Amino acid sequence: MKSIVILISGRGSNMESLLQAVADGALPVRVAAVLANRPDAKGLATATAAGVATRVVDHKLFASREAFDAALAAAIDSFSPDLVVLAGFMRILSDGFVGHFAGRLINIHPSLLPAFPGLHTHQRALDEGVRVHGCTVHFVTPALDHGPIIVQAAVPVVDGDDAARLAARVLAQEHRVYPLAVRWFAEGRLQLCDGKVVCAAPQDGGSALISPGGV
Ligand code: GAR
């Protein structure tokens, strides 16, 4: 069975959805550890309660991004994971770190990339007046919130939405697609072709584009 390490910075609801999918038997991976860059990350307690090992690599204790990334990479490598899963991990990662984990490092981002990389995605979507918003799971490349897309989920933007309402609607889809993307990886179904992900032979009606209709 493939093993994963999950990286968080805060609340950890995406991490929790992955742990729940494992507990439900819907995600055939072993969660080797949850790592955080902040000692006060709320998700650490959730992981501990679920019986998962945790580590903190506090970025504030390092003089440079490279030094932090080297310590983080060493902490991850100590668990020898097949896949590193960024789940609300809010640090820009150096080229060296991304290169070290190339092809086995994935991220979830709360927008339909390539639209709205970076922060405050929901407010920016509202400000632009887009009618469709969503989330993206992608392989990580050195560019911020960029890389071959594994799966996206779209939600409608509804009249009267504010950023909190829209964020909640998107988050519900994040919790749905991240376990799916990790499962596809674990089953060896994700292949890269010309810099794009090809999801090989879905056996469950899944596809690389999910467009739930409900609000
Ligand atoms: C999620 O919405 C995730 O997509 C986002 O942070 C939130 C973390 O929530 N990630 C990014 O913005 C990365 N660029 P969580 O801690 O409850 O999973």
Q: Any overview of this molecule?
A:
This protein is an alpha/beta fold and 215 residues long. The protein folds into 2 domains: 1-101, Formyl transferase, N-terminal domain (Rossmann fold); 108-215, 3-Layer(aba) Sandwich (Rossmann fold). Helices cover 32% and strands 25% of the residues. The protein is built from 6 helices and 10 strands; from the N terminus they run βαβαβαβαβαββαβββ. Strands 3-2-1-4-5-6-7-10 form an 8-stranded mixed sheet, covered by helices on one side. α1 (13-23) links the parallel β1 and β2 (29-36). α1 (13-23) crosses α6 (163-186). The protein is globular and about 50 Å long. The chain binds glycinamide ribonucleotide. Glycinamide ribonucleotide (GAR) binds at residues 8, 10-14, 87-88, 108-110, 145, 171, 174.
Task: Give the helices and strands, then pairings.
Layout: E1 2-8, H1 13-23, E2 29-36, H2 43-49, E3 54-56, H3 65-77, E4 83-86, H4 95-100, E5 105-109, H5 121-128, E6 132-139, E7 149-156, H6 163-186, E8 190-193, E9 196-199, E10 209-210
Parallel strand pairs: 1-2, 1-4, 2-3, 4-5, 7-10
Antiparallel strand pairs: 5-6, 6-7, 8-9
Bound molecules: glycinamide ribonucleotide.
- Rg value: 17 Å
What class would the helix/strand composition place it in? Answer: alpha/beta
Number of domains: 2
The name of the CATH topology of the largest domain is Rossmann fold
**Number of beta strands:** 10
Q: CATH superfamily assignment of the largest domain?
A: Formyl transferase, N-terminal domain
- List the uncertain runs: 211-215
Strand percentage, roughly?
15-25%
Instruction: Spell out which ligands are present.
Output: glycinamide ribonucleotide
Q: How many separate helices? A: 6
Which percent range fits the helix content?
25-40%
Arrangement of strands in the largest sheet: 3-2-1-4-5-6-7-10
Topology order in helix (H) and strand (E) letters: EHEHEHEHEHEEHEEE
Biggest beta sheet summary: 8 strands, mixed
First-to-last CA distance: 36 Å
**Mean pLDDT score, rounded?**
94
The level-1 CATH class of the largest domain: Alpha Beta
What sort of overall outline do the alpha carbons produce when their principal axes are compared? globular
